[in-house]
C-alpha cells in the first residue's frame, strides 16, 4: 500500500484528488494539508511514502517545502502537481530533489502511475510542461523585478524585518519600504507576504531579472 500525503490549498481540487486516489486499491491518502508550512509536521505524523505537493501554497510554497523535507532523516519522495510551468519553477523543483513534476490537467491514470513510479524510486517528469517552460523563458525573460527588489523579497521570505534588512543592506527603512511597494505593484500582492508568494510561484526569486539596477 502506497501512503500519500496531499498538500493543496484549493478545497475542491484537494477533495477531487482524495476521491481519485481512494479508488486505487494500492494507494491510500494518509494526510491532507492546505498550507505549505503544515507539510513537515504532517509528514512527521503520517509517514507517507509519497508527498504530492502543489506549488502555490500559503505559508511557504511547495518547492520550499520540498527542499526542507530533505533535511529529514527519511524524507518521502516528492511529486509536484502544478499548473505553473515556468523555467524558474522547474529548475527549483530539480534543485529541491523532487522525483516528479506533473501538470494538473494530466489524465488521471498519469497521476496514479506517477505516484507508483515515484514510490518505486523512479523520476517522472512531464516533459511537455518542462519543454514549454524552457521554450517560453528562452525567448523572453518574464521576471519584472529588479535585482534589488529580488534581494529584498528574498530577505522577507527568509524572515528578515524592515529594520534588520535596512541595516544589512545599508539602506534607510524608507528606501526598503519603497522597494517592497514596487515589488507588490509588480507582483500584484496586497501584502509583502503575497508579493513573496507570487514571486516564488513564478520563479522570480531564482531567475535572472530584466533590469540592471534597482
UniProtKB/TrEMBL annotation:
<dbReference type="GO" id="GO:0000160">
    <property type="term" value="P:phosphorelay signal transduction system"/>
</dbReference>
<dbReference type="InterPro" id="IPR001789">
    <property type="entry name" value="Sig_transdc_resp-reg_receiver"/>
</dbReference>
<dbReference type="GO" id="GO:0003677">
    <property type="term" value="F:DNA binding"/>
</dbReference>
<dbReference type="InterPro" id="IPR039420">
    <property type="entry name" value="WalR-like"/>
</dbReference>
<dbReference type="InterPro" id="IPR011006">
    <property type="entry name" value="CheY-like_superfamily"/>
</dbReference>
<keyword id="KW-0597">Phosphoprotein</keyword>
<feature type="domain" description="Response regulatory">
    <location>
        <begin position="3"/>
        <end position="119"/>
    </location>
</feature>
<dbReference type="Pfam" id="PF00072">
    <property type="entry name" value="Response_reg"/>
</dbReference>
<protein>
    <submittedName>
        <fullName>Two-component system, NarL family, response regulator DesR</fullName>
    </submittedName>
</protein>
<dbReference type="Pfam" id="PF00196">
    <property type="entry name" value="GerE"/>
</dbReference>
<dbReference type="InterPro" id="IPR000792">
    <property type="entry name" value="Tscrpt_reg_LuxR_C"/>
</dbReference>
<feature type="domain" description="HTH luxR-type">
    <location>
        <begin position="138"/>
        <end position="203"/>
    </location>
</feature>
<dbReference type="InterPro" id="IPR016032">
    <property type="entry name" value="Sig_transdc_resp-reg_C-effctor"/>
</dbReference>
<dbReference type="InterPro" id="IPR058245">
    <property type="entry name" value="NreC/VraR/RcsB-like_REC"/>
</dbReference>
<dbReference type="GO" id="GO:0006355">
    <property type="term" value="P:regulation of DNA-templated transcription"/>
</dbReference>
<feature type="modified residue" description="4-aspartylphosphate">
    <location>
        <position position="54"/>
    </location>
</feature>
<keyword id="KW-0238">DNA-binding</keyword>
Amino acid at each position: 500500500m502506497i501512503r500519500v500525503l496531499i498538500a493543496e490549498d484549493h478545497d475542491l481540487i484537494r477533495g477531487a484528488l482524495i476521491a481519485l486516489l481512494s479508488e486505487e486499491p494500492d494507494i491510500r491518502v494518509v494526510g491532507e494539508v492546505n498550507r505549505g508550512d503544515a507539510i513537515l509536521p504532517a509528514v512527521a505524523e503520517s509517514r507517507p511514502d509519497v508527498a504530492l505537493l502543489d506549488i502555490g501554497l500559503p505559508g511557504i510554497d511547495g518547492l520550499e517545502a520540498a527542499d526542507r523535507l530533505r533535511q529529514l532523516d527519511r524524507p518521502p519522495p516528492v511529486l509536484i502537481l502544478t499548473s505553473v510551468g515556468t523555467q524558474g519553477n522547474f529548475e527549483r523543483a530539480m534543485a529541491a530533489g523532487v522525483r516528479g513534476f506533473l501538470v494538473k490537467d494530466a489524465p488521471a491514470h498519469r497521476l496514479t502511475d506517477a505516484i507508483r513510479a515515484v514510490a518505486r524510486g523512479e523520476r517522472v517528469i512531464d516533459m511537455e510542461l518542462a519543454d514549454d517552460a524552457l521554450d517560453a523563458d528562452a525567448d523572453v525573460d518574464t521576471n519584472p523585478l529588479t535585482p534589488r527588489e529580488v534581494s529584498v523579497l528574498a530577505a522577507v521570505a527568509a524572515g528578515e524585518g524592515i529594520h534588520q534588512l535596512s541595516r544589512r543592506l545599508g539602506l534607510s527603512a524608507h528606501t526598503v519600504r519603497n522597494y517592497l511597494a514596487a515589488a507588490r505593484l509588480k507582483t500584484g500582492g496586497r501584502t509583502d507576504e503575497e508579493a513573496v508568494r507570487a514571486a516564488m510561484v513564478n520563479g522570480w526569486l531564482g531567475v535572472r531579472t530584466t533590469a540592471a539596477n534597482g
